[in-house]
Each structure stands twice: as structure tokens, then as C-alpha cells.
Amino acid sequence: MADDLQSLRRDYNLGQLKKEDLLDNPIDQFNLWLRQIVDTGVKDPTAMVLATVDASGQPSQRIVLLKQLDDDGFVFYTNYGSRKAQDISSNNKVSLHFPWHFLERQVKVCGVVEKVSATQSLAYFASRPKESQLAAWASAQSQPISSRQLLMSQFENIKAKFAKGEIPLPDFWGGYRVKPSEIEFWQGGSHRLHDRFQYTRRADERWQIERLAP
Question: Is 192 a catalytic residue?
Fold first, then answer.
């Protein structure tokens, strides 16, 4: 297979992206594309790659799910002891990537992270299925564990502990908001002449739009 990698290619011809078609606010533009993605029926349309950098300068990536979006930014939830959370504690500059290749599109977001309020985290946690709530309690995310059997044992112990009544929000779990400073929209083009437009937040909080070379 490795010998065939150079021959794996295709052209991109599903559409074009023109500056005059872009909305002034990148969040509005993102919502437009997201609705179009959701309408295709693709699985996990809100899946996004979160890239962080630790204190030593080592980048790391993983897929998380976008759970809320407004003019203040992109929100996801996680364990505050996870690797991503530890990276953020030492360097709050991150990047998000939405790989919507089946429509020959990508969106890249650069910005800084802040925790959402405990009230917001609680509201989202309460909306999760009970099993997901229990899993948040059972898993010390990113920490070594000897076996899946041990993980399932911890899950069953937590399930028994909270068998009656509501499951409380763990104090080690909650949301982060990525406040964007740059958002780039990419549309595949023929002959690798792709359309790329970058929104950059200016000092007056307005957005500047520039076309980038592919």
C-alpha cells in the first residue's frame, strides 16, 4: 500500500467560494455551512479536531464534539484532568479543524480558550444521557489504566453509587470556549486551485476578510 500513496489523488470540483458570497460575520458563515453539513445526514457533523500545545512545545490533537456556538465562540466539554486540559492550562492558544471533505470543505479556527461557567457546564451535563454522566465520573481521562475490565468495574461502582437520585456534576468536568481570532473557510477547487478566505478579528472587534493563495 505504501508504494501506491503517490498515485492516490482526485480533483475537487463540487463548487467555488467567492468573496461576494461570504457573510460579514464568520460565525454566521460557519452556521450556514454547518446547516448544509447536517442536512447531508453525515454522521457526527459537529466533530472537530482540537489541537493543543503543551508546556514543552509538543503539539497534540484529538477529535471532540462541538456542543454550543455563538458570537463568543465554540464550546466543547471534557475532563479537567485530561491531556487537552493540562495543555490548555499552560498554553491557552488552540486551533480547531472541521474536516468536511465529502463536500470538499474545511474550516480552521484559531483562538484562545477559557472555561465556561459552572452554571453552563451543569446545564449541559444535565442534558446528557445517564450513562454518559456516569462515564464522566468513572473515567480519569488520559490517565493510564491497566485494563478495560477495571474501567467497567469503576463504571459499575459509580452506577451503584448514584442509583438513586440525580447524578451531580463532577468538579473535575466542564466546558471550554474557544474565542476565535481567525477563522478560515476552504473550498476545494480544480487543479488544486482551492478557494481560501480568512476572517481576522480586528482591534475594534470587526472582522477583516482576505483571500489566501491555495
Answer: yes
